[in-house]
Amino acid sequence: MVLIADLRLLSVLILDKIPDLVSLPEGLFASASLSSIKILSCPKLHSMPLEMQNLSSLKSLTIRWCKELSSLPQSLQNLTALESLEISNCNCLISLPDCGIGGLGSLRTLSIENCSNLTSLSSSLELLTLLEHVTIMYCPNLGSFPAGVQHLSSLRSLIILSCPWFDSLPEGLQKVRTLHCLEISSCPNLTALPEWFKDLHSLRSLTIYDCPNLTLLPLGFNLLTKLQHLSIQECPELQERCIQGSREDWLKIAHVPHKYIGPPQVKRPRKESTSGSSSVQASFQ
């Protein structure tokens, strides 16, 4: 049996498929050498350690399929080297800790998926000025996107999938000059893109999928001169308006070199998939 005291030089910790684990042993996170932690398929785990200040080298934290996990500690803010945070299939999680998230000054990737009871994201999200990639999927009870998006000055990709609360892009997004990739999928309450959408001058890839009530593109869409990839699928009226030729929105998109308008070529990933993250993140140099 390995003692906790023997783990001081551990750099990667994976806890996988431990059905009776209720809480993590005291001292498990004592190693200042830990760079990656994955906690997977621990259905009875209900809390994380309150004190996490020793993890000064931690760069990646992944928590998946821990359905009894109800909260994350405020001490999350001590993970000052953390670059990637993924939380998925944690159905008892209601909110993210405000101070805890705001202290993650090195965070570059944030993914929140399949957290069916999550009602709010941290209001301190705006403090994450190095954050580059944000994915929010299958979180039906979120109230809205937090304010302060304009302060995410490094944001490169934003993916919103199957979130019925999502009915408009956050106003602050118009001031983000680094956004390269935007994907909006299965958001039935989205009825329009804002007129300021034309101000997203850095946008290179746009995917709109299964947003049946989105019926037209905003004026000035043709000013997105850096847009290289455009996909519009499962949006019947919008697709009709974008048919090549004399249709109303064709002139707005004619300049885009790579576009696909029509029925999906492949099926979208199912929500109940247990193979991990189902999103595809585009990266542009």
From TrEMBL:
Residue segments, region Disordered: 261-285
Keywords attached to this entry: Leucine-rich repeat, Plant defense
Domain of life the protein comes from: Eukaryota
R13L1/DRL21-like LRR repeat region domain mapped to chain residues: 171-235
Database matches in Gene3D superfamilies: Ribonuclease Inhibitor
GO terms, biological process: defense response
Family annotation (PANTHER family): DISEASE RESISTANCE PROTEIN RGA2-LIKE (PTHR36766:SF59), PLANT BROAD-SPECTRUM MILDEW RESISTANCE PROTEIN RPW8 (PTHR36766)
Protein name: Putative disease resistance protein RGA1
Taxonomic path: Eukaryota, Viridiplantae, Streptophyta, Embryophyta, Tracheophyta
